[in-house]
Amino acid sequence: MRFSKSWIIASKDFKVYIKKKNLLYALIVVPLLVAFLIPGVISYAGHKNGVSGIPASELTILLPSFSFFYLILAGYLPSSIASYTLVGEKVEKSLEPLLATPTTDSEILLGKGIAAFIPPVVAILAGSVLFMFLMDLVTHSKLGYYFFPNWNAAIVLFLMVPLAVIMSVEWNVVVSSRVSDVRTAQQLGILIVLPFAGVYVLGELDIVNLGVTSNLLIVAGILFVLDLVLFYVARATFQREEILTSWK
Amino acid sequence: MLCCLISKTSGVARIAGYEVGNNADSLKIRKLIGLVPDNVGLYDSLSAYDNLDFYGKLYDCTEAQRKENIQRFLKMLGLWEKKDVAAGTFSKGMKQKLALARALIHDPKVLFMDEPTANLDPESSKTVRDFILDLKKEKRTIFLNTHNLDEAQKVCDRIAILNTKLMAMGTPQELERSVSGRKTVIQLEQISDPMLTALKKMTVRNISVDGNKLTIDVVDPEKENVAIVETIVRAGGHVQSVNVVGSTLEDAYLNLVRRAN
Q: Is A90 at the interface with chain B, CB within 8 A?
């Protein structure tokens, strides 16, 4: 497999994304929204009946779970991109000439994967930097120290987020083979956020302590296994002949 | 199938010595060929230049080759002035021309075209057809798939007629000659009995008279018509016009299909 071919395909997709305003908005606005909204809520919440905000003991339970918002984003953001890059090409009938070039299925799949992987990861990491800065700003007076950055947040952002993005991309490849329009692909693709949202809720309910490193590593391990399984399913789905004859 | 996009069902096909259906040869074949699919499949948000540049990169063309070929083909097709315009804003004819340029960006030895003039206005069709004729001069193998028999007749050196299976193959002239029931229609100033007697002495099959018009069954009009006209003139006839009917590629096609059914 030649990485250069995949990179050519990914670079072309990046050029296309820049022209697609809805994709740009999703990549920029959503992480910014999370970065501003959650610190805003934390800053505002609990200010009533003489109580001045959320107590420090509760903040230490809430804050680690908030990093999981970025896992939810890691599921959501690639779905809008991957659905465009695969179903969009199918709809625009540009897959046939692409498949007629001297590139292998794996090179095209990797190119599409890179194109759907890098923008969300960059957007999430950039958004998380702002999120951590603002969160530290609103919680420092309560906690007496800067909660972010910490090793657990690093595990979420640098290990779990990429794994979740990969999973989302793979899921969307599978979905793309079964649908014929971008919107349906996005709607089905977005279902991938449900497990991440579930883990987040479990964390907020203190059923799973997401502040414990070993728990995070277990979730990362599960993600890794799921990524491997989905990789084989996606690879089996993305066959030249299948795309041209069986993809709806 | 020949572009190595889908598997072959049976049989053997070779392109530039490489076997279609052999996995090891598929990439080599795809590198040698250019494809103009029935749906142009351009990237609408990218410029004409970027569309071609992308494909040039995938075909391992150097930057210099890409620049040269993009300029050459866009100029040949009259799109150079629009090189920085998004392909999505192009008319159908312009898109088709851009798809042609895309298929040629790597100077393929073999070019596959799937109905390149379908749904184009007459002017665009002519531009595309003339461009194909120019490509022919460059000694490229061009594989044109079309329902337009007139276009096939004008452009192709060899024609294969397919109707679920290969029914006939040959030059346009050979296929036209294969049609039975061809007739020569001769308009005369006046028909006389000596003229008809002289014609009947020839080996012509059937002669029918309608006013001053003679209709004669022929097999090879190019050869037989000379003798027929000479006979008429010798018998004192004045020929006003000579036409051959039932001799187009369309007739050959319809004849073959009817025979098969």
A: no
Nearest to A102 among B30, B46, B102 (CB): B30
Q: For chain A, positions 168-207, list CB contacts with chain B under 8 A.
A: none
State chain A's maximal CA–CA distance in angstroms: 70
| Chain-chain contact of B5 with A100 (C-beta, under 8 angstroms) | yes
What the block records as the tokens of A80 is 């809008």
Nearest Cβ partner for A93 among B33, B39, B57:
B39
Say which of B31, B43, B60 has its CB closest to residue A94: B43
Determine the Cα–Cα distance for residues A56 and A67; give it in Å rounded to an integer.
17
User: Tokens 């004045």 map to which residue?
Assistant: B238
User: Could B43 and A102 be called an inter-chain contact, meaning their C-beta atoms sit closer than 8 Å?
Assistant: no
Domain ranges for chain B, please list them.
14-156, 180-245
Predicted-complex ipTM score: 0.84
φ and ψ of B115, to 5 deg: 45, 65
Q: What is the DSSP letter of B164?
A: S
Cα A85 to the center of its chain, rounded Å? 16
CB contact (8 A) between residue B41 and residue A100: no
Cβ-based neighbour number of residue A194 at 10 Å: 11
B59: distance to nearest CA of chain A, Å? 7
The answer to whether B93 touches B121, Cβ cutoff 8 Å, is yes
- What the block records as the tokens of B214 is 């003679």
CB contact at 8 A, A78 and A172: yes
Answer yes or no: do B5 and A241 touch at CB < 8 A: yes
Which class does domain B14-156 fall in? alpha beta
Is this prediction's pTM over 0.90? no
Give the one of A16, A101, A245 whose C-beta lies nearest to B59's C-beta: A101
Q: How many angstroms separate the CA atoms of B148 and B144, rounded?
A: 10
CA B21 to chain A, closest CA, distance in angstroms equals: 12
List chain B pLDDT tens, one digit each, 261 residues: 888 888 888 889 899 889 888 888 888 999 999 999 988 899 999 999 999 999 999 999 999 999 999 999 999 888 999 999 999 999 888 999 999 999 999 999 899 999 988 878 888 888 888 888 888 888 889 999 998 888 888 889 999 988 888 888 888 888 877 766 678 889 999 888 888 888 888 766 688 888 889 888 887 788 888 888 998 898 888 999 998 876 677 777 887 777 777
List chain B residues with CB under 8 Å of A101.
Answer: 30, 55, 58-59
User: Which CATH number, 3.20.20.70, 3.30.70.100, 1.10.10.10, 3.40.50.300, labels domain B180-245?
Assistant: 3.30.70.100
The CB density around residue A206, as the number of other CB atoms within 10 Å, is: 13
